Amino acid sequence: MSVNSHLVSLGSDLVLSTEEKSIISTSINTLSTRLSAYFGTGITSKLQFGSSIRGTILPRKADSKSDIDYMIVFDTSEGQKKPQTYLDRLKRFAESKYQTSEISQSSPTIVLSLNHIRFELVPAIYNYDYQIPSPASSWSEWTSTDPTATNDALQNKNKTENYQIKPLVRLFKYWNASKGHPFRSFELEQYVVGKYFWSCSALKDYFYDLWSGFDCTYDTAQYIKDMVASAKEHARKAKEHEENDMPVSAESEIKKIVPAL
Fold first, then answer.
1. pTM for the structure as a whole
2. Domain check: are 197 and 231 in the same one?
3. Direct distance between the N- and C-terminal alpha carbons of the chain, in angstroms, rounded to an integer
4. pLDDT 10s digit of each residue in the chain, 261 long?
């Protein structure tokens, strides 16, 4: 097996199985029905967003923290509440309708575990645009968001780059998960979408180019810098081995970054 065949095979293994997709679909349909019955006109819309829509979500076998983002838009016609008010409402809903499930708040979401899949319930309001609760570190209570903008950007990038971007993102996120999530998955997707790839055609070209250009910021923790430096060095060695017609050694180096599942 070559470096490219390993990456292509692994990228394919990192796609959700038909069974997982079916379980997620069933859970979302049930969730949607229960939300409507519980809140009635108190919510105006519901939508799935994030990596599960973009096709870059990892299966649980590759990332135990893989989750489904689900936005619940609350009606504000009688006055807008604080974010925690809506979070509390979602938590009471989850505790009422999913009594045997694991439920917790992970600001700014309510995490609901269903059939070994994590759902992040995100409260939102609509005021000219969608707004979700801001992180605790922010000075404002609400943050504007476009739940479909990244989808469009990723789809366009994937089409432009020989349909290699989605598998590349999954490989990048798999490395991140294997290292304990030193980076937010969404930030890695944004990095790949925003990166210019030079003279790439095969998946291995994109993988090499990704690591050659990926750098930490000055204030990144040293242990994370060490992880990145290690991956970059393995990628450099793999490319060098390939250039020297040493495919076995090249594949060995690549597997130190993203081993087979």
1. 0.91
2. yes
3. 15
4. 799 999 999 999 999 999 999 999 999 999 999 999 999 999 999 999 999 999 999 998 999 888 999 999 999 998 999 999 999 999 999 999 998 888 888 878 999 988 778 899 999 999 889 999 987 666 789 999 998 888 999 999 999 999 999 999 999 999 999 999 999 999 999 999 999 999 999 999 999 999 999 999 999 999 999 999 999 999 999 999 999 999 999 999 999 999 999
| Cα pseudo-dihedral 216, 261, 238, 206, rounded to 10 | -60
Q: Is residue 93 situated within a structural domain?
A: yes
Q: Which residue has the tokens 């055609």?
A: 201
Domain count across the chain? 2
Query: Does a structural domain hold residue 261?
Result: no
Kindly state whether residue 82 falls inside one of the protein's structural domains.
Answer: yes
- Class of residue 254 by CB neighbours under 10 A (exposed 0-12, middle 13-18, buried 19+): buried
Q: Indicate whether 164 and 243 sit together in one domain.
A: yes
Cis peptide before 147 (omega within 30 of 0): no
Task: Say whether 177 sits in a helix, a strand or coil.
Answer: helix
Tokens of 161: 């780059």
> By the 8 A CB rule, do 66 and 59 touch?
yes
CA-closest candidate to residue 110, choices 47, 118, 64, 184 = 118
Question: Which residues, at least 6 apart from 82, have a Cβ–Cβ distance to it below 8 Å?
Answer: 141
Which of 125, 146, 167 delimits the end of a domain? 146
| CATH at residue 45 | 3.30.460.90
C-alpha distances out from residue 60 to 102, 149, 156, Å: 17, 26, 27
Domain that holds residue 30: 18-146
